[in-house]
Design goal:
By secondary structure, the protein is mainly alpha-helical. The chain has two domains: 133 residues, no CATH class; 108 residues, no CATH class. It is built from twelve helices and four strands, in the order ααααααααββαββααα. The strands form two sheets. Strands 1-2 form a two-stranded antiparallel sheet. It has a two-stranded antiparallel ribbon with strand order 3-4. The longest helix is centred in the middle third of the chain and has 23 residues. The radius of gyration is 20 Å and the shape is elongated. The protein starts with 14 loop residues before the first helix and ends in a 9-residue tail after the last helix. The relative contact order is 0.11.
Amino acid sequence: MVLNNVSRAGLHWERDELILAFELYCTLQGSNMEKNPQVVALSEAIGRDPGAVKMKLENFKKFDPDYTVDGKKGLGNTGRLDGEIVLEFINNWGDLAWEAENARRKYSIKQDSEIIAGEFDIPEGKYKERMVKIRCGDRMFRNMLLAQYRRKCCITGLAIEDLLKASHIKPWAVSDDATEKVNPQNGLLLNPFFDLAFDKGYITIDLDYKVILSKEIKHTNESTRLYFEKYEGSYVDLPSNKLFYPGKRFIEYHNDHVFGKKPIKI
């Protein structure tokens, strides 16, 4: 479906289009972008050819430090606004989730907020709006981790999507709404058992991304100890893009305040 049945081929990209494209860049998995259903769906919604959307996704690589670290430059003919979008949201993920949601409304794309709002049987107002914003952010956070970790638990390799958890390294309850709750560098994709063990501080990862076991596991019964020990010292399976690697400050927070400690009570 095209907005107002009007093609925008050849016209300058508007801010809302770029926001939707950058969100897709962060949540897309696979190399054949032009035929990807998500690329096709976005192109139809905003009146662009799939090839034009694919090219815009390629444009973002010019501003992606993971892509440019080896001297690559990305496509040459990139717009100034492309870079501004990346710089604006790359450390402000919560706002990206919400502005993308508002852009979906503009282009009559099915919105997460339409689904989420029905889950809250509370009056309209600031509290409901905040809850919807949080849930939209949670969904984008999960989608980014699913794409970047190739839909597998980064410790065990479990690959059943319904059983995977988008885990926060620094706990969600003490993370900043805009810069930490939705920040993919504050996330690991884990199966439910390891998600709980990580959340309760029984395991962690170090700054080299290796799995570390707590003394509580070391002193438990043999079967439990042996189950965990086969993963001790192993490296987690890292994201496809270094931009989304677990952040040092989040790992340090988990090591200092969660690992080997009693669960945080808020």
